[in-house]
Amino acid sequence: MTVAQILAAKGNDVTTAQPHRTLQEIAALLAEKGIGAVIVTGGDGDVLGILSERDIVRAVGRHGADALKDSVSRHMTSKVATARMDDAIDHVMEQMTVGRFRHLPVVQNGHLNGVVSIGDVVKHRLEMVESEHRALCDYIATA
User: Fold this and answer.
1) What percent of the chain has pLDDT over 90?
2) Exposed e or buried b for every residue in 56-83, given b needs 16+ CB within 10 A?
3) DSSP summary character for residue 69
4) Triad 6, 12, 13: Cα angle to 5°
5) How confident is the model at residue 52, as a pLDDT?
6) What proportions of the chain, in percent to the nearest 5, are helix, strand and coil?
7) Greater model confidence, 80 or 138
8) Is residue 103 a contact partner of residue 117, using CB atoms and an 8 Å limit?
């Protein structure tokens, strides 16, 4: 299974933010949308960074509530790992585990195509395991 199959099932809507927005604005956006991260993009749509709930909590923990007035660019992760549409789920799971992050922007030919979360990856991996299990049970039952 590939990233493209995950996005085909869940859609490729991406919540983005501009780097000049404040952490307060992004915290409100995350709460409103019920999501854990936004992709920070430039005017041309290029991926500049990612800002997660963890990034906001760390900023407040280090700098107090005044950090909520800071711009996203000050606290975002600017070295963003990305996935491609043809990446295998196993590769994406490994990338997320090694990097210790939960969201991975999907970029193809320089364009942002979607985001996969660890929840998306685990859900589809479990579906694959369950399908294999059913196939083995059917095989054993008919042997």
Assistant:
1) 71
2) beebbeeeeeebbebebeebbbeebebb
3) G
4) 140
5) 95
6) 50, 20, 25
7) 80
8) yes
Whether 4 shows a pLDDT value over 90: the answer reads yes
Residue range 3-142 in CATH 1.10.3720.10: no
Strand order in the sheet with 37-41: 16-17, 37-41, 47-52
| Cβ-contact 89, 121 below 8 angstroms | yes
**Integer CA distances (angstroms), 91 to 26, 61, 97, 101, in order:** 30, 33, 10, 14
Q: What is the pLDDT of residues 37-59, one digit of tens each?
A: 999 998 888 899 999 999 999 99
